[in-house]
Write a structure and sequence with these properties.
heterodimer, A: alpha/beta, Rossmann fold, eight-stranded mixed beta sheet, 14 strands, globular, B: mainly alpha, ABC transporter involved in vitamin B12 uptake, BtuC
Chain lengths: 441, 358
């Protein structure tokens, strides 16, 4: 009896694996969404996934991409690389083929970077993943649109220098870097090291093992060495823990600066007023509750009861990041349609051309409801980033407010680092640099 | 009726000592191999290869290696992830630092390095036993995690600490397509499976089992504990190291120490316990249970929801997956504490009597 049940279960199991639910729909543009709704970064990754899904719904309400409806299917990775790879394999061929992936995890990005060229699917990694993938000459399929770790690090250091009254004031000072001990955390270090060499400030590296809930020792070290500033490259539950530990050790929040992933509402909401003064650098957007696109989502999507998540998070930092992510995904596909045929879904390979030839002018962005949220983004064959603008915002106890004007990362410093690192990657892979002709295709 | 060995007489020593003494078993295994080598490549699609079959094969190999140590020699180890990492990083270094190094040799040399590490961290087993040994092997886990994160030489000075592999080839044959990767993994698994099966029924395997069952008695009848325990560590770490190198090279392509973290060690130990301690077959069952079942649940739950007409959201599926998976572990351990492999042998016993059980 027992064995029969087991045999039955096994038979069911094999049937389940073999029959993925496929419902054929023509004329849709499929955007897979790798989510982190559970796991160590759930509080932060959930608003992103909700924003991504909501903006796609809005695009459909606006009439799709020249009439082509968007379709989102989620797959849960829980921020784990092996599950992310499984999700990628699961979604890449569905609904006529994936347009673009946004894995929202540096670990998954590294793993997928090896797979996407063979599958001919582009990948957008705004603000994470490989910083050197800005160089489209080597990384044909990766797009760190609107910035990467080095842009965030550079603009943040510029902001700190400005606060102090110039780079020359930095000499002899000490900056502690608290970072996630993984490729995600380490990716920030090259730019900090480069700047410290240029301006003669000292850096103290304080790695925190994942997932980062154990930081007592780190902050005692901070208390001992009394750095002038602390830069944090943290994500998920780690950021809140770091701020709490800083409060416990009495390190002033005004001297703590997070990077792009370390300054959002879920990190500070529960700490509230005690976290006042904590700042983080935001590439392009921040919390944008007043923007036109947010109002439109609230009216058309949430108003119709179609919202993906809670209404309160619409317009918050990470929700906006999802919205911006979706915007970039859609606009690339739209650009590709202009070349490969309007009103027809584009393949991943065609969409790649769109991301490489993205030209989002201020007028276009404003028309889409992103006035004051985004600055123009324009990519090319060798520049897969398209914009290096950032601002710094500060927590006032209940919400974020802008604390700086627009800052631009110094391309003179970043470009050589990107080219050098990308060249090394290309050399290791024994691949040749893309030439002019390939850029036209 | 079908599964009965009546009339199969052993007339020579060779026939008495074959791996599968019963003819029906030999036919079944032959069929299984034929399906794996010929049938599966004809039927499976890319998703099945890359997301399910390749991870399953590689982790089966790792579980097989761990089973030799835990199941056959009775030495609990929580350092499996570390030995996989040693295999992977050593193989990576051999591949990138020595020009023209064939991939297979790099992987095997990775296994050799893991062997050295395994023997080194196996030395405490001579003095401490059971759970205390498990804690001691944890040291290996933390040490190698630290080593590969901190010493950038091991990652070829990669700034992010993540390493990647390009252009796999097997003596000139490129291993790029999912099918070729699958066949490569299958070949390795079959090779090591035969090796392990024969090792455990040789004199050395019997020594391991004697040590496992009662080490004092084993020492009294002339088995050297030092030799037996350290060979178990060596063979186990070698196989685990090779599996680690394959996990990095063939499955991930790019990895960081996190891929071989403490979670991996626990995962492999659970595979061995659920599959069946001291059973080669059990390693495969355990790997299938741990690798395939969560993905299966994750895919079937939304489909079930569709049938009933409920749209189940991704987070709920993920939570439900954990709950059902945990419940199933408890269920199987209660129904059969000796693992899935034991269920299999009970099934075989019943089949021998079927359809006249009395």
């Amino acid at each position: 009896m027992k064995l029969k049940t087991l045999a039955l279960a096994a038979a069911l199991a094999s049937a389940g694996l073999a029959a993925p639910t496929a419902f054929a729909q023509d004329k849709v543009q499929f955007f897979p969404s790798l989510t982190g709704r559970t796991g160590p970064v759930a509080a932060n990754a959930t608003p992103f996934a909700n924003g991504y899904a909501d903006y796609m719904k809005l695009v459909n309400l606006r009439g799709g991409i020249n009439g082509v409806k968007t379709l989102v299917e989620e797959c849960e990775t829980a921020y784990a690389t092996d599950r992310g790879v499984e999700c990628y394999e699961r979604l890449k061929g569905k609904h006529g083929g994936a347009t673009v992936f946004q894995p929202l995890s540096t670990g998954i990005t590294f793993a997928l970077t090896e797979k996407i060229p063979a599958d001919k699917i582009p990948m957008i990694t705004s603000g994470y993943g490989r910083s050197d993938s800005q160089d489209g000459g080597v990384f044909k399929w990766n797009f760190p649109l609107i910035g990467h770790y080095w842009v965030a690090g550079d603009t943040l250091l510029q902001h700190i220098a400005k606060k102090e009254g110039g780079w020359d004031k930095r000499k002899g000072k000490k900056i502690a870097v608290v970072y996630h001990d993984s490729p995600f955390g380490k990716e920030l270090l090259p730019i900090i090291t480069e700047r410290s060499k240029m301006h003669g400030f000292e850096i103290q590296l304080l790695p925190v093992p994942a997932p980062g809930v154990e930081q007592k020792a780190i902050w005692l070290q901070v208390r001992q060495s009394r750095p002038d500033f602390v830069v944090m490259q943290t994500w998920g539950v780690m950021t809140a823990t770091a701020v709490k530990e800083a409060i416990a050790t009495g390190y002033p929040r005004e001297k703590m600066f997070g990077t792009w992933w370390s300054g959002a509402e879920p990190d500070l909401r529960d700490i509230g007023a005690a976290a006042k003064g904590y700042s983080a650098v935001m590439m392009q957007h921040g919390a944008e509750p007043e923007s036109a696109v947010v109002k439109e989502i609230l009216a058309k999507v949430h108003g119709a009861g179609q919202g993906t998540g809670p209404k309160e998070e619409v317009g918050q930092v990470l929700y906006m990041r999802g919205v911006v992510g979706a915007l970039l995904s859609v606009e690339g596909a739209r650009a590709a349609q202009e070349r490969y045929g309007k009103g027809k879904p584009v393949t991943g390979e065609q969409a790649r051309w769109g991301y490489e030839n993205l030209n989002l002018t201020q007028a276009k962005l404003d028309a889409l409801g992103f006035k004051g949220v985004l600055r123009p983004i324009s990519t090319s064959c060798f520049d897969h980033m398209g914009s290096a603008w950032a601002r710094v915002h500060t927590w006032d106890g209940t919400k974020f407010t802008w604390a700086s004007d627009w800052l631009q990362a110094d391309e003179q410093i970043i470009k050589p680092m990107v080219t050098q690192s990308a060249a090394k990657y290309g050399q290791d892979k024994k691949q040749t640099r893309r030439e002019g002709a390939d850029c036209q295709s | 009726m079908l599964y009965r060995e009546n009339g199969q007489f052993k007339t020579t020593y060779t026939s008495d000592s074959q791996v599968f003494p019963i003819r029906q078993d030999r036919i079944a295994i032959g069929l299984l191999l034929a399906i794996a080598v010929i049938g599966v490549p004809l039927m499976a699609d890319e998703y099945l290869f890359r997301a399910i079959l390749i991870p399953f094969l590689i982790l089966s190999l790792a579980a097989l290696g761990l089973n030799i140590l835990v199941g056959y020699c009775g030495q609990i180890s929580l350092g499996t992830g570390a030995f996989m990492a040693v295999g992977a990083y050593a193989a990576y270094n051999f591949l990138v630092r020595i020009e023209g190094m064939p991939m297979l040799f790099a992987i095997l040399l990775g296994g050799v390095c893991a062997t050295v590490a395994g023997v080194l961290f196996g030395i405490p087993s001579l003095r401490i036993k059971g759970l205390y040994l498990a804690v001691a092997t944890l040291a290996a886990q933390f040490f190698f995690d630290w080593l590969f994160l901190r010493i950038s030489w091991f990652t070829n000075n990669s700034p992010s600490g993540s390493v990647s592999i390009s252009e796999l080839s097997f003596f000139g044959l490129p291993i790029v397509t999912p099918l070729s990767k699958y066949l490569f993994c299958l070949g390795m698994l079959i090779g090591f499976g035969i090796l392990a099966k024969n090792l455990v029924r040789s004199h050395i395997g019997r020594e391991w089992m004697a040590i496992r069952d009662m080490d004092v008695a084993a020492a009294v009848i002339g088995i050297r504990p030092v030799y037996a325990k350290l060979t178990a560590f060596a063979v186990s770490s070698f196989i685990v190291g090779v599996a680690g190198a394959m996990w990095g090279f063939v499955h991930l392509g790019s990895w960081e120490p996190q891929a071989f973290g403490i979670d991996r060690s626990f995962q492999l130990l659970f595979m061995v316990i659920i599959g069946g301690l001291g059973s080669i077959m059990g390693s495969f069952f355990g790997a299938a249970f741990i690798v395939v079942l969560p993905i299966f649940l994750n895919r079937v739950l939304p489909a079930l929801g569709d049938i009933v007409g409920i749209n189940i959201d991704t987070a709920f599926v993920s939570h439900a997956e954990f709950m059902i998976f945990g419940a199933l572990i408890v269920f199987f351990l209660i129904v059969e504490p000796h693992g899935l492999a034991r269920l299999w042998s009970i099934a075989k016993e019943k089949l021998r009597l079927w359809p006249f059980p009395h």
